[in-house]
Specification:
The complex is a heterodimer of chains A (295) and B (233). Chain A has 295 residues and is mainly alpha-helical. Chain A has one domain (3-110, 149-217, 224-285). Chain A is built from ten helices and four strands, in the order E-E-H-H-H-H-E-E-H-H-H-H-H-H. In chain A, the strands form two sheets. Chain A has a two-stranded antiparallel sheet with strand order 1-2. Chain A has a two-stranded antiparallel ribbon with strand order 3-4. Chain B is an alpha/beta fold and 233 residues long. Helices cover 35% and strands 27% of the residues of chain B. Chain B is globular and about 45 Å long. The chains are: A mainly alpha (295), B alpha/beta (233).
């Protein structure tokens, strides 16, 4: 058997893949957080709940309306994005003139409310959501067995991340977003409807979380707690990457997912804490994060 | 003919502090007006209040016959008023060209892009570098250029020559004269008295949050003693 660093190659690549998949979710979620924080200066604690809502949207749409995975992948983010936009317009936008802590507390409360409601309605146990038939099964790469759905997750989340990055860096809408992040008043004085831009941004962030949620539904089980399980790690990812950099959020997400996967190979006992250890080291050496602008 | 901009008994507040105490002024179509005054008398505040950036305001602002007090900030530009702030407001995460193209076009009759590049050749040369990599003078040119594209009728400039080298100040003066030929109405605040006297048709003198005098450029020589006293120049 081929060995690499004294580890069977198969185990190594298997964990690398798992790391890459976890990294895909970290990247998608921390990207949404970074987009929201960049413009709204709100630390969106409801991000995990919005991720969970995406997975539930897929499951419920299938149960009640027979909506398949492919439509859910589009409709889920749209529904959750609209919900996010509604929350921003009616509640969150009222807090912008206050201390930033209010936004954090509000979204934290929102997350608890959403999670509590879903726990009450559906119980804490996870429910399965099956892999779409087109992506079922796996393929033997020779050195390892690749479940097709997992490969799909890696590819499509990469596409979503790059797409979001292009939207922000290369389009007119993205130029408005970047400019408003620097000086919202002036952008508004130029005739851009900045309040609408904020609503759109929060909706987009929520939609990204929901997109990750739909992607996650067939891999992890659909459970009201799935959001709070992952969001703690995602916040650590954001701390390591540094707030405010879009590409930084994406790269850090993948990097830490892979670091976590590889730790499982070399020192499994540490795999649950490795991200937090990295976070502590980064905080000691570079408090603004790897990609953050110095505060 | 009614003036393009008519400001009557305008009051404004920064939180608790009352900064404009009944400003009255009018700007006719095609005029270039300069507001003079010492630091802290409310010149910048007047511009920001007309623009709608300062929302705690009372009195009347009429632009092209329209009451502007209830107009939200993001609709002010669409009514036809463009703003070049004192700090210039060039965005560092945007390229020069992105900065230039950022403000939405609000009406026809704006300056076409090639004409802007003719007027400001430096901006064309450096169009893909980050906005804040430009020199102070180039940033000021960019701040003016990006408003020219939009087709606004009134250009509001807050101290366009502040901190710039004499040769750049002269360039900005030429640009303002060109704009005047095109029929643009300009309202500016300026500390550089010599610059102001070259470009303005009429002056307002401001003190303690009010306009205390108003005279055309022709009367300037006779007012010099008074201005020296009030402005301390």
């Amino acid at each position: 058997m081929t060995m690499i660093f004294g580890i069977p190659l198969q185990a190594f690549l298997g964990q690398l893949l798992i790391g890459l998949i976890n990294g895909s979710f970290y990247a998608l979620l921390s990207l949404g957080l970074a987009v929201i924080f960049g413009l709204l200066r709100v630390i969106n604690f409801a991000h995990g709940a919005q991720y969970m809502l995406g997975a539930f949207a897929a499951m419920l749409m299938l149960q009640y309306f027979g909506v398949n995975y492919w439509f859910a992948l589009i409709l889920g983010p749209v529904v959750v994005g609209l919900f996010g936009a509604f929350i921003e317009r009616t509640m969150l936008s009222r807090l912008y003139d206050l201390d930033p802590l209010y936004g954090l507390l509000f979204t934290f409360g929102l997350a608890l409310t959403i999670e509590g409601t879903f726990r009450y309605l559906y119980g804490a146990a996870g429910q399965p959501y099956s892999v779409p038939a087109q992506l079922a099964g796996g393929t033997n790469l020779g050195f390892m067995f690749l479940p097709i759905y997992r490969g799909w997750v890696v590819v499509v989340s990469l596409v979503a991340c790059i797409g979001t990055w292009l939207l922000i860096e290369k389009t007119k809408l993205g130029a408005y977003l970047r400019a408003a992040t620097e000086n919202a008043t002036l952008v508004q004085a130029f005739g851009v409807n900045v309040p609408m831009l904020l609503t759109l941004t929060y909706g987009l962030g929520a939609a990204l979380a929901a997109f990750a949620g739909v992607l996650a539904a067939p891999i992890y089980q659909v459970s009201p707690l799935m959001g709070s399980n992952i969001i703690i790690v995602v916040f650590a990812v954001v701390v390591v990457g540094g707030m405010g950099s879009i590409m930084g959020a994406i790269l850090t997400g993948y990097m830490l997912g892979i670091a976590e996967g590889l730790t499982k190979v070399f020192y499994p006992e540490a795999s649950n804490i490795v991200i937090f250890v990295i976070m502590a080291i980064v905080l000691l050496l570079r408090p603004a994060g790897l990609f953050g602008r110095d505060a | 003919m009614a003036p393009l901009l008519q400001v009557s008994n305008l009051n404004a507040w920064y939180g608790e502090s009352h900064v404009l105490h009944g400003v009255n002024m009018s700007v006719g179509e095609g005029e270039t007006i300069t507001i003079l005054g010492r630091n802290g008398v409310g010149k910048t505040t007047t511009l920001r209040t007309i623009m709608g950036i300062i929302r705690e305001r009372q009195g009347e602002i009429r632009f092209a016959g329209r009451d502007m007090l209830g107009v939200p900030l993001h609709r002010t530009a669409h009514a036809g008023i463009g703003f070049v702030p004192e700090e210039r407001g060039i965005f560092s995460t945007l390229s020069v060209e992105e900065n230039l193209m950022l403000p939405p076009v609000v009406a026809g009759g704006g300056m076409p892009l090639d004409e802007i590049y003719d007027l400001f050749p430096n901006l064309k040369e450096r169009r893909s570098s980050p906005g804040t990599k430009l020199s102070g003078g180039e940033q000021q040119m960019l701040a003016i250029a990006r408003i020219l594209r939009t087709g606004v009728k009134l250009l509001i400039l807050d101290e366009p020559t502040e901190g710039l080298a004499p040769v750049i100040v002269q360039r900005i003066g030429e640009v303002l004269k060109k704009l005047k030929e095109r029929g643009m109405t300009v309202l500016l605040v300026e500390q550089n008295f010599r610059f102001a006297s070259r470009v303005a048709d009429r002056f307002y003198l401001m003190d303690h949050g009010q306009m205390v005098a108003d005279f055309p450029v022709g009367e300037l020589p006779g007012k010099m003693d008074m201005l020296h006293k009030v402005l301390g120049v």
